[in-house]
């Protein structure tokens, strides 16, 4: 794991470093539980590109600083952009987000997610499109957009990890599960006490570094191809259309206007009143 990380051009909250065959991408906005802005999304994509271009890398680790892996998108940032862009550009934003997940999914290096605290929304999308998830036992996984009515998840990967019953449970209700449940249903490889996460990530990356880079890439390609043959790309395209359609609901516009004017906490409080 890289000890010396630097912010990428364009956003100080996404850090990148590489050493001993492993790249580390860190979400570094701990005061906001690593809630992701549009600028951070762009920087994250640049970090993936940098990792892809480095022929010496055997693996990529994605982690978050502070109390959470990622608490999803920054709702106020999202609401501002929704108001500025309108529905057509909102559909384009959904497509752009999906391209981030496709980029992550297609990365030739194995990608490990170290999830703790909260792995929510955008953070959960990272986990679903990565290769291996190591989670703390108390980590919370869920899609908040279902509960607050701001749209569907950006990718359609849940069905491939969870099976139909659990995918429907999470996507129809927005209910949260913990790390232990994530391990049991196949969302995480392993759930551990948080104090052991770094050691397990280190053990896994060392194992990957013992395998030639090209062999890792081809093995991953074969496994991903199996999912593609089950319709991942077509399902992703359908999901984007459905998300854009769902977000045309007037209540989504009203919610975004409220978040822009009074903030996300006040909006949630008024909804629950």
Q: What would you note in describing this structure?
A:
The protein is an alpha/beta fold. It has one domain (6-196, 210-266): 2-enoyl-CoA Hydratase, Chain A, domain 1 (Alpha-Beta Complex), CATH 3.90.226. The chain has helices at residues 38-53, 75-106, 122-129, 144-148, 158-173, 179-185, 197-209, 213-229, 232-246, 250-262, 264-272, and strands at residues 6-7, 14-19, 22-27, 59-64, 111-115, 118-120, 132-136, 140-142, 177-178, 190-192. It has a seven-stranded mixed β-sheet with strand order 1-2-3-4-5-7-10, with helices on both faces. Strands 6-8-9 form a three-stranded mixed β-sheet. Helix 2 (75-106) crosses helix 10 (250-262) and helix 10 crosses helix 11. The longest helix is centred in the N-terminal third of the chain and has 32 residues, at 75-106. The chain is globular, with a radius of gyration of 18 Å. The model has no long low-confidence stretch (mean pLDDT 89).
Fold blueprint:
Blueprint (H helix, E strand, L loop, with lengths): L5 E2 L6 E6 L2 E6 L10 H16 L5 E6 L10 H32 L4 E5 L2 E3 L1 H8 L2 E5 L3 E3 L1 H5 L9 H16 L3 E2 H7 L4 E3 L4 H13 L3 H17 L2 H15 L3 H13 L1 H9 L1
